[in-house]
Amino acid sequence: MGAGQSMGNRQRQTLYTPAERARRDATVWTLVQGILAPLQFLAFAVSLCLVINFLLNGVGLAAATISVVIKTSLLYAIMVTGAIWEKVVFGRYLFAPAFFWEDVVSMLVMALHTAYVVMWLAGWGTPAEQMCVALAAYASYVVNALQFLLKFQVAKKMSASEFRASPTVLGAQGALES
Known about the structure:
The chain has one domain (18-144). The chain has 7 helices and no strands. Helices cover 84% and strands 0% of the residues. The protein has helices spanning 7-13, 18-26, 28-57, 61-90, 100-122, 127-165, 167-177. With 178 residues, it is mainly α.
């Protein structure tokens, strides 16, 4: 970064520096995140249906409970591996400037999922109250997932515009046009 350039300006300009992009592309943790994210979303979608079914119809408590525990386990896996990914790419386990707000919301997501598990294990609240906490956790998960999707969409657009603006690409494009 140049003198006087803030991290906020850097983030608006590009999500990754060239060195960070190279580390992101080289680490196995990027693939791990790419596998865990859709698995977690699938577990969320199934679990959401089971939780809502229980809350509306009063049946399927065991299935709903198991599904929330599976979803929470996947969340923990993606958070741990995501922290390792962030360390490899950005040099810190959490709250790297490029993903600061996503990490802040992720902490809320973790807290709510953990609250559900604690309530379930301790027998605190009724099953319906526990499932309402699960729904709150799921709502925060949706917000967090949208944050990441929007961030990656912006990064993809930036990468595409950087590719188009590259002198090598422009030279090749000019050669093709002549």
